[in-house]
Write a structure and sequence with these properties.
The chain is mostly helical. The protein is built from 28 helices and 12 strands. A 4-stranded mixed beta sheet has the order 1-8-9-7, covered by helices on one side. The chain starts with 5 loop residues before the first strand and ends in an 18-residue tail after the last helix.
């Protein structure tokens, strides 16, 4: 649910997909899918498929990803080679003190334009392909039925086979695939049925348990579990704002021309999807119904907490009894919802992220008719199912979410979409094979050593802080030493034995996996927290800090070139993955993480004087990053990105301290010129920048700036190094140059 987890998200593809929590091209999610079947109700729960209908709507456009099914398809092209740091890639015609990002990245970016099926591309893009190709080989092998296939091989293999079976998928129009679910919605008689209807969609469409920085991208609301803010050893139910089909509230409420244009395109998209998904819907009715959907979602957007206020955990720590939750929204039958999803009782309370949202939700429910809510629910079902349906509806879904919002030129090939779906739904089963193929024990050992070096650097940094008083320093060290380091993969693999996966229906498999994961999530409510849990799969190219578990987590997927390279020396690795390590550790002490103690409880352990000193330094960072982003045409809000920006600045500084200490212990110098003409100090900073080289489609960049707590790569590089005298020494930058900030900001 609205569990605060702070991730680095440096890889462009992961970055793009994390920004828009939509049902587009099935991105790997940060949590695995939940739950099961609903409790019996007075109506029959919708199955995924029904008997063939007598007619279906023909596709009106040529498919964007149509293939000739009469001919064997060629195998995927070989994966691109992994990028390895090479200082000769820099553009020596440029001055590193003017624009270090351009100095380090312009040549690589020019030689590696964004592929047509990508919305961003950087030095980590090849790694994403490489990881997915490993998973493809595992899935293809498992898809061959043999007498000795294991249970998990049957599941991942049949999931893959069903997803890749275009013949069956294309022979089943959306109106037939969704017929049972839409009929169930049509049986809604009164608003008292709304809770049951929402529950059934949550059990079928992935993500009702998984929030992001803006909302939970699910029908009407989100529901899940998390450790209690006041006692992180206990798991309670959490209820979140949701209901929007666009990335966040700003897309509905901003009145600039670009925002109005996107909202208009969204309304047209909703209408087209309703026409494609509902057999009785014509264009005129679709347009009218789309207007209703946008009106309801706009009302929900007005009620939502904004993403800056949402960053403060104190704003989210609203403890309520079920009776009080029901009083917020009398027209939403919470007991019926909880019964339908089979949620255990949450004692002693439920966490409600935004009481104002649910108070306003009552007014929205009252404002719109039963027929209006049927339209909204139908849209949510069609929208959430679109990537798993036949081409006309998948095309329309792609055009809006991938082309309009992110700028993609063409869809990903089907095999990559199927790999991502399998990683989301059965990722821990796939992860075992990935670790065996791509993450040797030596890589884990070296990473663990770097983690300890960076943690030791922060320990020394806390000791030397001149703005922090001894009582706060002591508490900070207690928290630092309590951090649990998780590297590569979980100690125990997830059991998927209860998930029913067949070769017959891709959509049915998604529904089964969703129900499994939803129920797996809900089963934790009322139990002690499971500290062994990972919320990303091993092939994920990302890392995160969990403040309520006080853990740092580095999956095997990011411990590959260009981030970690076993062939490179320490300055290169500390500049790249060392910065990632430092970034995640710093999250434990950024403007959000610092509010949690060593046990993960929301507790103020700072003296009042140190709070003021911290906030002054944090405001310096927020002011620095509140700037116009001309490439995106919008201004970045430094209050939204403050936590990630603090982690970037602290992370690189800690990594530098760690590698400097390591080289000194080996009687080596950071400033001794090596055979290639570069010093270790220079290669440290160049490696940091090289691992961040990224190009974005303009549409994606705008969406990122409006919705993501992460700054654009160029600013993640230049704003950090311009705060560091250690960088200025590396490249002899003079006072007054752009990479020597007059008012240098530093928290850690």
């Amino acid at each position: 649910m609205r569990v605060l987890r702070f991730a680095i998200i440096m890889v462009p593809l992961c970055f793009a997909l994390s920004v828009i929590r939509v049902h587009s091209q099935t991105a790997p999610s940060t949590q695995t899918a939940p739950s099961t079947q609903t409790a019996p109700s007075t109506q029959t729960a919708p199955s995924t498929q029904t008997a063939p209908s007598t007619q279906s709507k023909p596709a009106s456009k040529k498919s964007l990803w149509a293939t000739n099914k009469d001919k064997p398809q060629p195998p995927p092209p070989p994966p691109p080679k992994l990028e390895h740091f090479d200082p000769s890639q820099v553009d020596k015609t440029l001055d590193p003190c003017q624009d270090f990002y351009e100095y380090a990245c312009s040549k690589w970016n020019a030689a590696n334009p964004i592929p047509e099926d990508q919305v961003a591309w950087g030095t980590g893009g090849g790694l994403q392909y490489w990881n997915e190709n490993i998973l493809r080989e595992v899935l293809q092998k498992a898809a061959t039925p043999t007498a000795n296939r294991t249970d998990y091989e049957q599941k991942i293999g049949d999931y893959w086979a069903a997803c890749m079976d275009e013949v069956t998928i294309e022979a089943t129009p959306a109106t037939r695939s969704l017929d049972a679910g839409l009929k169930y919605i049509d049986h809604m008689k009164s608003k008292s049925d709304l809770a049951d209807q929402v529950a059934h969609i949550h059990l079928a469409v992935p993500g009702a348990w998984q929030s992001d920085d803006n909302q939970t991208g699910a029908a009407l609301l989100g529901f899940g579990q998390q450790p209690a803010y006041d006692d992180a050893t206990k798991v309670v139910a959490s209820i979140d704002q949701g209901g929007l089909g666009l990335p966040n509230r700003d897309f509905y409420l901003k009145d600039d021309d670009k925002s109005k244009e996107i909202l208009g395109k969204y309304q047209a998209h909703v209408g087209e999807m309703l026409v494609l998904g509902i057999s009785a819907e014509d264009a005129n009715q679709g347009a009218a119904d789309a207007k209703t959907v946008v009106a309801i979602e706009t009302a929900l957007a007005q009620a939502q907490m904004d993403n800056v206020a949402r960053r403060d955990p104190k704003n989210l720590n609203n403890k309520m009894s079920l009776k009080r939750v029901q009083e917020l929204t009398p027209s939403f039958d919470w007991r019926a919802y909880l019964k339908a999803i089979k949620a255990p009782p949450s004692s002693p309370y439920y966490l409600v992220s935004s009481p104002q949202f649910f108070h306003s939700l009552e007014q929205v429910i009252q404002q719109y008719s039963v027929d209006d809510w049927k339209v909204y629910l139908s849209w949510q079902l069609i929208h959430g199912s679109a990537p798993y349906l036949y081409q006309p509806i998948a095309d329309e879904n792609w055009v809006f979410y991938s082309r309009t919002l992110r700028g993609a030129k063409q869809p990903l090939p089907r095999w990559r979409r199927c790999v991502r779906a399998a990683d989301r739904d059965l990722g821990m089963a796939l992860g075992q094979a990935y670790v065996a193929a791509a993450f040797p024990p030596e890589s884990k050992q070296r990473t663990v050593a770097m983690v300890h070096d960076v943690e030791n650097a922060l320990d020394r940094d806390i000791t030397d802080m001149d703005w922090m008083r001894p009582p706060t320093k002591a508490e900070a060290k207690v928290k630092l030493h309590a951090i649990e380091d998780k590297v590569g993969y979980p100690d125990h693999w997830r059991d998927y034995s209860s998930v029913k996966i067949t070769r017959g229906s891709y959509l049915e498999n998604v529904h089964e996996a969703t129900a499994f994961e939803f129920h797996r999530q809900l089963s934790r409510i009322g139990k002690p927290v499971d500290r062994s849990e990972w919320t990303v799969t091993p092939p994920t190219i990302n890392a995160y800090y969990d403040p309520q578990l006080n853990t740092i987590n580095f999956p095997a997927g990011i411990l590959q070139p260009p981030y970690f390279d076993s062939t490179m020396d320490d300055p290169v690795n500390y500049g790249a993955v060392g910065m990632v390590i430092g970034h995640e550790i710093t999250h434990g002490f950024d403007d959000q993480g610092r509010k949690f103690d060593a046990q993960g409880n929301l507790r103020d352990w700072w003296t009042p004087e140190d709070v003021k000193a911290y906030e002054k330094r944090g405001q310096c960072i927020a002011d620095e990053y509140s700037e116009e982003i001309p490439e995106a045409g919008v201004k970045q809000n430094g209050r939204l990105t403050q936590g990630e920006d603090i982690a970037d600045n602290g992370g690189l500084r800690l990594a530098f301290m760690a590698v400097n200490n390591k080289l000194q212990s080996e009687n080596k110098s950071l400033d001794a010129e090596e055979a290639d003409g570069w010093t270790p100090r220079q290669k440290f900073f160049l490696s940091f920048a090289f691992s961040s080289c990224t190009q974005y489609r303009p549409e994606l960049m705008r969406t990122v700036v409006l919705t993501s707590p992460h700054s654009i790569s160029k600013y993640r590089v230049n704003n950090v190094v311009s705060n560091m005298p250690e960088f200025q020494q590396a490249f002899s930058c003079k006072k007054g140059s752009p990479m020597v900030r007059a008012n240098q900001c530093r928290v850690w």
